[in-house]
Predict the 3D structure of the following.
Amino acid sequence: MPHTRPRGAAVALLLLCAGAASAAPLSPDDAVRAALQHDPTLGHAEADLLAAKGALRAASGPRQNPRVEARAAGSYLEVEAVQPLSLTGEGFAASRSARAERDAAELSLGRARLETAARARLAWADAAVASGRARLSLQALDLATRLREATEARVAAGEAPVLDLRLAHLEEAKAAAGHLDARAQESDALRTLAQVTGLATGDVDAEGDPLDASPAVSPTEQAQAAGVRSDVAAADRRVEAARAAVGRERAAVFPAVELGAFYERDGDFTQVGPIVGVEVPLWQQNQGGVSSARAELLAAEREAEALRARAAAERVTSERSLAEMDRTSVVLGQGLADEAAEALASIDAGYRTGELDLLQTVLLRAEVVNGLDAILNARGAIAAARIDYLLASESDALIPGGAE
């Protein structure tokens, strides 16, 4: 009777798989909704918008507070009230700059929401692929275990050499190692999904077709994707803000004019009159402020040009990839999984009846399992291509209805 090794490791693996599959399923739309509530990057964009709104309120009012001075000594009393006023348009330029910054922050927040939704969908697709590969590796382990058991029976009956049993043991060990590796990759993918969504790892389970991560892209949506992206529009508004800031610094060369009144009393003597003051900029003409503002404008213009070029490249390349993926998706239907299951059953039956030897059985099973793995990875790649296109074209389909 040939020696048989303990099956405790296989039992432990099955228990591990049962525990890993206990989490509640998480749909791609649910992942997006959770990410929109917990993504720290989105929180930074919201904070930037709040700060920009505050800066606009500050720039819309008087830029300088009034000054009141009072002096008293015995019967002497003097009071001055002065309001500095800029007559060079500095306040208007500052308001235009702050308003453009506010608009840029609003546009950036809209872009950040789409990017968060895309990250959540990509993380879900990656987790779905990893979970599918883990289930596939478990199936491969089960096939290897049944192959080893069948080989044991054939060796015991004298229908196969002991070498076949040793090879079957090695095949089962290789399948167990592959399953452990697949489970580790699944754990990493689920942790990434948990980080993106802000949910506990035990509350996320992305079992399903990776293609479910991406909304379908219709030809009509592709034809309509020609507007200016919000990140490009935000960069243009920052250029406007920087240009207005240059005007503000130029206007600040001439200090504010001081207008006010004074009241003076010294015993029986009383005097009231206006105050007018102006500072003449002979030596300091705000050279540093103007130079810094010009440098900021140049940087903003370069950044806008680079972003515009990147956006155009992303749109062209994503359209090209999407078209290629859509042509490929025709041969990746879900029905192939049923065909693969029938093929595996036929291979198993062929080995048990003696029509196939061990080597043929192992090679044929590996071809089927590798084919299923390739299909799973390809469907994940198609989902990623669709998400990339939707983000490049800023499609609202990335964000499900009801998401805040």
About this structure: The chain has one domain: 45-398.
